[in-house]
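lol forgot to send this yesterday, sorry. struct tokens for the thing we talked abt
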């Protein structure tokens, strides 16, 4: 007996192929639909934990937003470049916080929305972002450069050009307080140099009196009119909301205990 294993024309092979093609097409459509239906910016537990991490400075009463930039402000160990690393890190942290907030705003769990909402209010009340933050950090960068310039060796033989170079960061800034102080400091510094040279050439009570008066004028300027940079910026000050750390702790605790339900 001989069995004919051939398939009739237009038989099972074509039908099977059509069925398989249909199944594959449906599967592809389903996968694509799932990809598009899941929000690409959906918040995750990692987002919630990163927000807590970026705000961990709140738990330290002596700390504040951009603490490193404030701490290093008048430290001449840090060059302009290394100091700017501190201010740029502050910019990056603030940008990350805003991005995380944009994602966490979409979480629907009611318990999370409550603790997160209270924390978000504290963030907005106590922190600086965007153009305002950038403006404040630029003031810090200018002041740090001024401190570096001021730290260079002072000589009685400095010229007006030398003095102009020292105060250039302040004079060239867009801040009126800096400009005015830089101008006055430069004038008084030059008067000290002029009277010191007079005293050297023509020693005497008159020359000594003029030199002492120039020194006294500079001391008065520094004591009464020097900008208080820390008062000029919001960053670097302790949170005005005394409950900020408590709200952060409540938020962290809720995420830790309910992350499976929330995310």
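and heres what i got for the seq, position by position
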């Amino acid at each position: 007996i001989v069995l004919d294993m051939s398939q009739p024309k237009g038989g099972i092979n074509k039908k099977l192929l059509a069925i398989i093609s249909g199944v594959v097409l449906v599967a592809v459509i389903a996968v694509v639909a799932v990809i598009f239906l899941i929000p690409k910016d959906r918040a995750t537990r990692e987002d919630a934990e990163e927000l807590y991490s970026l705000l961990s400075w709140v738990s330290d009463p002596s700390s504040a937003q951009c603490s490193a930039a404030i701490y290093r402000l008048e430290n001449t160990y840090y060059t302009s470049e290394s100091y700017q690393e501190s201010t740029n890190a502050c910019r990056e942290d603030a940008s990350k916080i805003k991005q995380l907030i944009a994602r966490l705003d979409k979480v629907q769990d009611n318990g999370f929305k409550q603790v997160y909402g209270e924390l978000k209010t504290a963030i907005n009340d106590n922190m600086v972002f965007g153009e305002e933050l950038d403006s404040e950090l630029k003031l810090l960068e200018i002041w740090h450069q001024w401190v570096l310039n001021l730290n260079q060796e002072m000589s009685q033989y400095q010229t007006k050009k030398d003095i102009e170079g020292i105060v250039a960061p302040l004079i060239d800034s867009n801040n009126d307080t800096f400009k005015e102080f830089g101008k006055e400091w430069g004038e008084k510094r030059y008067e000290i140099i002029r009277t010191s040279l007079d005293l050297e050439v023509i020693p005497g009570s008159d020359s000594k009196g003029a030199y002492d008066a120039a020194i006294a004028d500079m001391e008065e300027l520094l004591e009464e009119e020097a900008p208080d940079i820390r008062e000029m910026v919001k960053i670097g000050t302790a949170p005005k909301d005394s409950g900020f750390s408590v709200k952060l702790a409540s938020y962290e605790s809720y995420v830790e205990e309910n992350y499976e339900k929330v995310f």
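DSSP finds eleven helices and no strands in the chain. anyway ping me if u want another try
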